[in-house]
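DM from R.C. (forwarded with permission)

"hey, sorry to bug you on a friday — could you get me a structure for this? deadline for the figure draft is monday and I only need the backbone to look sensible"
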Amino acid sequence: MAERNVPDVSVIIPAYNALPYLHRGLESLVAQTLGTDRMEVLVVDDGSTDGTGEALDEWAERYPDLFRIVHAAASGGPAAPRNKGLDLARGRHVYFLDADDYLGEEALERLVATADDEGSDIVLGKMVATSERAVPSSMYRHNDLDVDLFTSRVWWTLAALKLFRRSLIEDNDLRFPTNFPNASDQPFTAVAYLRARKISVLSDYDFYHVVLRDDGQHVTMSGPVSNELDVAETMCELVESEVLDVDKRAPLLTRHFQIDVALVMRRLVGVPRAEQDALLERVVALVRRHLTADVRERLTPDLRVVYHLADRGRRDEVLELLGVLLEAGDNRPRVVIDGGHAHAQLPFFRDRSVGVPDALYEVTNRLRKESGLESFECHEGGHLTVVGTAGFTDVLEPTEVALVIRSREEPTVEHVVAATRGRGNAFSADADLLTVADGDPLPEGTWGVHVRVSRDGISESWRLGGDPTVHDEQLLDSFAWAATEQGEGWTAAAYLTKGGWLRIDAKWRRGAAGKQFTDWQLAWDDTDLVVRGALSAPRSAAPVRFVLRGPGGEVRRVPAVRDGAHLEGRVSMTGLSEGTWQLRLQVGRPPAHRPVTIRAEGELVPLTWREGLVASRAEQVPGPTVTLELTSTGPKQKASQVLRSLSGG
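My reply, with the result:
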């Protein structure tokens, strides 16, 4: 590889029997928008026997200025190859990529730019799975350019598959421990986290694509149970030595008891008795040294109980509980709510012969919630009907549900509407928005719609929403026009935000009613004037009709017929007096109904017709709304015309 300027990034890949997955990863590096002139790729072949080494040499021949290949004897894990890559790296930053996986085309460009712009020592890019292999996700909910290690979820991803400033690595003499067949990146990444000046998380792009090998040869998914416990012990000791503030250790230690030690416990069931006893003894030592009350509170109830039983030497009960958990798989335990407390229904709950405290089963503050919005619709008179589902996921007993309409401007102001339970978690609610505020109309403003689920002293509220990308007819914007007892006009619009949350806009602008009617068109059908328009809120139920007003206060009213998003009315011209007539739409209930101006595109051609001996003509003339001039000619009118002609002669 020819000497050149210092690369922006050195990509380090340990490779062992990586065919055929290797090629996609290398192709993704060649395609990086960062540009191959700003990077180097160091691939260490760790004694492959499937042709991986030869394939790497071919890539290096095709791209001699990009790839540097190192052939080494098999080491049994990724630690030694990664260390070799670090010894050879020249880039300002280092990025670790596994040989099975690949990157998004913009990954390195985005990561390097963030590191340089923000001065970050470590940058995490969102990981996604291309198969059933699980990937960390809780830390990738949004971008965070300056992460707090102790309050974020960053510690829950300790894989080295990130961008590191190389000076951070070299200044702290960081290398991967070679005594761990797998999980050697945990202590490496952990120390880097703790020594970094700044850590950034990018979640707005799919940076790293994780691939599950068909042959199951992932090093990280194999190995003896004792090795996993070695890692857990090392990590707990590392946290103790590196984090001097005792109060800050709990969120970090929680990760290791929830994942690493828990994995050891679940594998106990399949090992011989002597090995079980030896492993349990080591686990109990960890529990007594590092599992503080703060850590215990953060754990899921199954693990709280497991560690409690292990600490008390209840080996048989530990194995029985582990067997139940393994059989349940991903199914969560049922939860029972009683006297203001929620408890997971796990073995030995309130079993006096075992004596596990109720507090270890407590899940009151971590009840899982579920909800969905099926439909919403505004009705005449300011009613809003909402249909959906809401409940606690693991609670099978019936719960009560209510709608909570909460002010966006003043979140402490809310109005509660009782809902009716259907089957399971289904519910429906009808909110009278004209009386919901202690007998008064919903005040002007923007209101979020929440659900409140309650049972036996426990009550939780959360926002109600649906999928804004699904253009379901039942989730379209809905509009209502109503009148207060004082005769004031009032409007309410229910809609989904871009994020999918249900909201209500309440306003006192009477003129707002007319904004829902557009695209007016006029046509003649015999002696009927046909008026057609469109509704921007097609499920609006505000009463509407067409009103034609003429000379001397004469009025003709006809209903407006709605068909989905369309509105139509027919106004007969027969029997109308001569003079000027104006057509408007009337919206709402008296006395607060609102006249809406009708402005149609184009002009009507004049209409003539006869009623007996009288000939009539209707012609559109300029006006603030649709305006017609009606004239008639009959025997009396003709005689008058003759007399005026003779008199003038």
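R.C.: lifesaver. The CA atoms of residues 115 and 464 lie 38 Å apart.
me: no worries. The chain has four domains: 9-221, 234-366, 369-507, 512-635.
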